[in-house]
Amino acid sequence: MPRMTMIEAIRSAMDVSMGRDEKVVVFGEDVGYFGGVFRCTAGLQQKYGTSRCFDTPISELGIVGAAIGMAAYGLKPCVEVQFADYVYPAYDQIVSEAARLRYRSAGQFTCPIVIRMPTGGGIFGGQTHSQSPEALFTHVSGLKVVVPSNPADAKGLLIAAIEDPDPVIFLEPKRLYNGPFDGHHDRPIMAWSKHPLSEVPDGHFSVELGKAAVRREGTAVTVLAYGTMVYVAQAAAEETGIDAEIIDLRTLLPLDLDAIVASVKKTGRCVIVHEATLTSGFGAELAALVQEHCFYHLEAPIQRVTGWDTPYPHAQEWDYFPGPKRVGEALVAAMEA
Amino acid sequence: METYGPLSLHVPEPEVRPGDTPDFSSVKIPKAGSVPRPEIDADPRDIRDLAYSIIRVLNREGEAVGPWAGSLSSDELMAGLRHMMTLRAFDARMVTAQRQGKTSFYMQHMGEEAVSCAFRRAMEPGDMNFPTYRQAGLLIADDYPMVDMMNQIFSNEADPIKGRQLPVMYSSKEHGFFSISGNLGTQFIQAVGWAMASAISRDTKIAAGWIGDGSTAESDFHAALVFASTYRAPVVLNIVNNQWAISTFQGIARGGSGTFAARGLGFGIPALRVDGNDYLAVHAVAKWAVERARRGLGPTLIEHVTYRVGAHSTSDDPSAYRPKTESDAWPLGDPILRLKNHLIRLGTWSVERHKQMEAEILDTVIAAQKQAEKNGTLHSGGKPSVRDMFEGVYAEMPPHLRRQRQKAGV
């Protein structure tokens, strides 16, 4: 089986989808001739022509608004917002339009669009190239929210998202584009080529939205994570020697509550990890669900390890980023409680 | 060193307020028939004047004059009159129904009937409108059943959109009427996207976007013009300038630009201003723009110059911000009256027959209302099920919504 980086896997997902269905169109800032600032769409314009893969004006509102109109016509746009930090001009189109179109028209019009965007930090991007805005989307009825953590999932989930009949927010952890990252920023960069999940089938396959994956089986404590934090949690478990069960949520909405509940009931402890800010973050929803469904199985308070409630800083990036040390401390705290 | 006095903020004000005498002397009205009609494939650079004029066909004597006349047969004109009268009668009944508590809210078209009624007749089946809340003429002129409109207004058990939307936020894919958002301006760029999709798919269909004068200030308007211009989308972009955005006069959104239509010029989009109270002129201009779009010649921006005679909605009282008699002073008159006079002038119509038709239309509207009320009104009779409230958020109901529906006990 071929090995792919996350970028190659994402590109392959779009390539396969465009090849199978001429309704699939791809556009965004710099995605056409140049192939995207992260190269995710490289070669697609040459292969499928300028009317199916093209550059747009710098207007996220325009990109998403046009995609909604195209979806209403019957196309399946898969658009790129260059950084998740830039999505806010399109927020009204996403929240008030894409998410509600099926509902408010009683199914006369639907909105099968995918909005891809690089998310998260770890690349010295400062406060405008590092944000993790997933909770702003999980709060919206009518959206689906996906965060892959490896090349195989990225391809399978993106194909599933493109084929999904409803709008999907597809957040790509940019620090994972070229290799897994466990938060040890001072160690040599790892490549995908040595990771088992970089084996990605060439052709069409999909990973069902709404299904979590257990990345490390364990009995002591459940760690709920997604995206980059999956690797940080793995490092923390290794370094503390705590037998954590690490669940990669993969899809935040719809959420695989069954997998979460089964694991927490087994371990009796829960640590929630995300890079996004703490207050009203997705971890709050997870904590509420865990106490609601597992209260009598819990042996310790639920811990949350997240980015601080500050803008994402530049110089202090590694003080902000919830690395393996902080996650490890939370694992210990959960075990000692 | 040079010294400067303190700056002061310029806030535009309408020329008159309640208690003042209405004054439209600043609205320059060209003579009917005086504005040239360019070729369909005209270069936008050669027709920039059209953004500053007003295309008019009907003159004061009720004659159709000039190069834009002649786009409609007398049968089509009769149908147009019927559509506008139907919309006005429909509005009157629904405003009353709202006052009677049969629905929560209503928005009427008084004075603006020609804009949507005439525009619809320039489109073809399969084309798509992205309307605002004041273009129900697009439905009436396409013979969408009034009963279904009322079912929606009453949010009753036969409401085609299952009680999910505020009254008048209709949706009919079959009639080329995109679901109305209620958020302003958002649909303008969507119309461009729909039109781009038609071009991507090598189709022959075109789209029309709609926006009010006030909402042109939204970023969506700018995005729509950029995208329409860049991709030469087969779309007609309509600005309905009815002078008032709730209580805010059009000068607040227009700012220092001469006209709303002129906003198209910087994008290289042909921009036409039309007398929105002239059914013939609206139709002729719409036809020109639709033809241009369908031939792959790109977008057109149309500013319909009209006047909102009624309140913004049933929640609004215009006497609080404009002179009560302002609508009588509006220099472009009443669209129904003008078409009626034209047909009388042609000899195909009479005051008697007009009265007769008015009565017939009222009967039809009342009959439709009776039928709709059998399906319920907002607070009595049949209503959409609570169980259905949870349906249709997604194609397939996800587990968390299933759990919530169970919790709600439905």
What sequence of helices (H) and strands (E) makes up the elements of chain A?
HEHEHEHHEHEHEEEHEEHEHEHH
Question: Which class do the helix and strand fractions of chain A yield?
Answer: alpha/beta
**Tally of extended strands of chain B?**
7
Give the helix tally of chain B: 13
Strands side by side in the biggest sheet of chain B: 1-2-3-7-6
Report the β-strand fraction of chain B as a percent range: 5-15%
Number of helices of chain A: 12
Q: Which band does the percent of strand residues of chain A land in?
A: 15-25%
Q: How much helix, percentage-wise, in residues of chain B?
A: 25-40%
- Oligomer type: heterodimer
Helix percentage range of chain A: 25-40%
The biggest beta sheet of chain B is recorded as:
5 strands, parallel
Q: Note the gap between the termini of chain B.
A: 77 Å
Describe the protein in words.
Chain A has 337 residues and is α/β, with parallel strands linked by helices. Chain A has helices at 6-20, 44-48, 60-73, 91-98, 101-104, 134-138, 151-163, 229-240, 257-267, 282-294, 317-320, 324-336; strands at 24-28, 53-55, 76-80, 114-119, 144-146, 168-173, 213-216, 221-225, 244-248, 251-253, 270-277, 303-307. A 7-stranded mixed sheet of chain A has the order 2-1-3-4-6-5-10, sandwiched between helices. In chain A, helix 3 runs parallel beside helix 4, helix 8 crosses helix 12 (324-336) and helix 9 crosses helix 10 (282-294). Chain A is globular and about 60 Å long. Chain B has 410 residues and is α/β, with parallel strands linked by helices. Classes of the chains: A alpha/beta (337), B alpha/beta (410). At the A-B interface, helix 3, helix 4 and helix 5 of A face helix 5 and helix 6 of B.
